[in-house]
Amino acid sequence: MPQKSRSSTIELRGIQSRSDLRGLHVEQQQQDDKDGQAAHFPEELVERILARVSYPSLYKARLLCRSWCAKFCKSPSELLHFSAPFQEEVAAAAVRWPKYGPVSVLGRELMGYDGSSNCWRKLALHGRLPVDLCSPAFDSWRLAFAGSLMCAFGRSQDGSLKLLVANVLTGDWKELPCPPEIRGHPILDFRFVKVDSQHYKVLVHNLPSSQFQAHVYDSNRSCGTWTSFSNSAAPAAGIPGLSPFSAYADAYIGGNFYCMSESSMGGLVIWKFTSATGVWEEVIHSVEFEGGEFPGGMFEFGSNFLVVTLLQSNSIPPAGDKQISLSARVYELNLQSLKLTRISKSPQELVIGMQTASLVADAESVYFCDIPDHGLASFCRFSVKDRTWSTLPSSPPEYKWKWGRFSTFEPGLSPFASP
């Protein structure tokens, strides 16, 4: 160090004018730039490091510059370039991202419960999503998630019916054609089914109805049309309307439609509609259920098919509310043998609000969402793996939940899936 100071002093003594000083400054700046460039990391290494950052923090890198924004988008024609290796790195690390369930959307905010940190989080939707999804009218739309993709079904500001599928991480979206038979008619129900990381199906149906009709949109079909099926004959006698307590008392598995309804003789019946033949058949009758149970939900967990029912409970809610509360029963249905086995029931201290319960599921749990007309929302969970029940912490009181607008969000399943 002393030797460097003496050398600098000798150099400064040789400066005769301000122009010499400016020249020295330029020379020193050039040397500093070279030293800085030598210390810079290669872009490939930076991509590898950032790819291991978890969602949602990772997506702040979009704000660095246009080229970094382009790395997160599946539309290279609109931006600078497309970085497939970076997206592959992110997708490989994304299996460790947090999962959010339950979730709901208001405007450009998604509120969800992060089970890994045991807290509620607000997540921003991508700014490129269409304005229809952020208008007050969107609050009445039905929505569901499949990985990073969100399907929204409702009416736009001009009153027209719309069906949108969007990747809420990349901002890519597209409007699907509406099933022709339901144009101009109210929507009764729909399902958004994830088949794999880049493939999804949308099911729209009109059950209950005197003439059952269902329409399936398959993202693998290049023509972008719907496949429709309905009763080949008069509907099976005695299929009443589904329970209003849950919008998930039906399921679409392997091309067949299952629904659960209350029997006219009391108890429950599970029906199966085979799309190839257009015929309903009774799968399970009420003898396997307890008296007083009514439909809750039907959910697929890999090779397991669970049936959730609700039952009026004698428990008193902790807040002392006078409204009637519910308990839950969980059954496993073997679709080959059609054997129904009860595997769990909710503990007495865990209560669900009557007439406000909404059920959703992810790959690990079933969530019970209670949104009363008055008072705070409450949420509980049944873990399928260890068959345990738990109550989630209270959600932020300022968030205005909407009944029936719940889903689950697993962004790490398909972070760059195309709508």
TrEMBL record:
Superkingdom of the source species: Eukaryota
Entries under SUPFAM superfamilies matching the protein: F-box domain, Galactose oxidase, central domain
Organism: Marchantia polymorpha
Residue stretches in coiled coil: none
Residues in F-box domain copies: 41-81
Protein's name in the database: F-box domain-containing protein
